[in-house]
């Protein structure tokens, strides 16, 4: 139950159009809606401040559509990640109000009045990392954050990073995304005074080992203030960055 629904419930009790007993019964419900293939968490916004999100990989288009139809009754913003083009086409036939982004492989719909807060900079080492970067960017924007994109500034041409460093320093949080050897987060971490979230990607030649090499590089970074998420996990990086950004915006940090 979102805050608006809770407020309406309390108003109904105050106006004596709903009994306290009925209100208690409504609040004590399971807070999830059962489908034969999924249990939709309808109370996630109230508990965490963030909406339920669909991980599209491994789900059929029919399952994704069914889950979204339930979610739309409980939250304004819809985000489905890792949705391939053919699935997205089928979902859009059922739900044409959604928007599909082929680069980030996301399906979204969001209230146009949602205000953006703070600033999250998303930095990639190379153009090949943009798919993961756009997953992070779309996620952060859906969660109500202002996003600055800075792409293709890896260590192979470090002057490109220095040309953008003043823009990066203006952000509250920086998400740094890199494949190959994964050196870029360490460099950025030594140049800024705010949290850096590193995302290793599976981009690279054989010894990249599907992202294991940059993952280990980032975990072993000598620059302080860097946290690391899993390989190709743009969504997870954006979620953490959003939490930090909102705390800063509220003056808690």
TrEMBL record:
<dbReference type="GO" id="GO:0016787">
    <property type="term" value="F:hydrolase activity"/>
</dbReference>
<feature type="domain" description="PurE">
    <location>
        <begin position="118"/>
        <end position="250"/>
    </location>
</feature>
<dbReference type="Pfam" id="PF00731">
    <property type="entry name" value="AIRC"/>
</dbReference>
<dbReference type="InterPro" id="IPR000031">
    <property type="entry name" value="PurE_dom"/>
</dbReference>
<protein>
    <submittedName>
        <fullName>Phosphoribosylaminoimidazole carboxylase catalytic subunit</fullName>
    </submittedName>
</protein>
<dbReference type="InterPro" id="IPR039476">
    <property type="entry name" value="P2CMN_synthase_LarB"/>
</dbReference>
<dbReference type="GO" id="GO:0006189">
    <property type="term" value="P:'de novo' IMP biosynthetic process"/>
</dbReference>
């Amino acid at each position: 139950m979102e805050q608006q629904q809770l407020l309406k419930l309390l108003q109904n009790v105050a106006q004596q159009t709903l009994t306290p007993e009925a209100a208690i019964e409504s609040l004590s419900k399971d807070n999830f809606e059962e489908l034969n293939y999924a249990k939709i968490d309808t109370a996630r916004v109230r508990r965490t401040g963030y909406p339920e999100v669909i991980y599209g990989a491994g789900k059929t288009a029919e399952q994704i559509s069914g889950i979204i139809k339930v979610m739309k009754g409980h939250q304004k913003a819809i985000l489905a990640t890792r949705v391939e083009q053919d699935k997205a086409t089928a979902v859009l036939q059922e739900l044409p109000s959604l928007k599909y982004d082929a680069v980030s492989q996301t399906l979204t719909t969001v209230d146009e009045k949602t205000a953006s807060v703070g600033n999250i900079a998303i930095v990639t080492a190379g153009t090949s990392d943009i798919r993961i970067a756009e997953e992070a960017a779309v996620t952060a924007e859906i969660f109500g954050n202002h996003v600055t994109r800075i792409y293709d500034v890896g260590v192979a041409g470090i002057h490109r990073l220095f040309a953008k460093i003043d823009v990066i320093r203006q952000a509250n949080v920086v998400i740094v995304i890199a494949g190959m050897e994964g050196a870029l987060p360490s460099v950025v971490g030594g140049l800024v005074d705010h949290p850096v979230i590193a995302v290793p990607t599976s981009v690279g030649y054989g010894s990249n080992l599907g992202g294991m090499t940059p993952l280990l590089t980032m975990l072993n970074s000598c620059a302080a203030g860097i946290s690391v998420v899993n390989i190709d996990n743009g969504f997870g990086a954006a979620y953490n960055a959003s939490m930090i950004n909102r705390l800063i915006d509220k003056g808690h940090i």
